[in-house]
Design a protein that fits this description.
Elements (H helix, E strand, L loop, with lengths): L1 H18 L11 H13 L3 H6 L1 E8 L6 E3 H13 L7 E9 L5 E10 L2 E11 L4 E10 L6 H17 L1
Parallel strand pairs: 1-6
Antiparallel strand pairs: 1-2, 3-4, 4-5, 5-6
Amino acid sequence: MNKLYFILISLFTVLLINSCKYSGKAIPGNLSEDIDSWHQAAGSANAIDFFEFMDSTCVYLGTDAGERWNKEEFHKFAKPYFDRGKAWDFDPFNRNIIYSEDKQLAWFDELLNTWMGVCRGSGVAIFDGENWKLLQYNLSVMIPNEKINSVIELIEESVAMESDK
């Protein structure tokens, strides 16, 4: 019995050690805090901090099919919102971040409380040696599965009205 117990403990220990192997490279900075600060910058209409977090090559995808902006285009679109003292207020919760093996690239998704209801944001960020920079952000409105047919009808009506013009 003791021999079996010893074998089981040894096997468990080996499995535990092998499953916890660490690449040895620490995750730089704090991407989650940077994303929180980015959202807070929009809520307080701080355009400087908001756009500073975005890489020069960043692409922002909004909820409308036509909303695909590079950083410069998004700045032009968002400027009136920032100028009036409040852009938008997204309150993130339930964020997941996955890092590349070298810890220099990250993919994330998050749920957001917004004026549109619950939305999902997803993005890609790169560590530039000093700071995390946002490469892409995609904002999506969450539609409960049981409501999707109603939403499809609204979209079809909207498309039909556009084609009648």
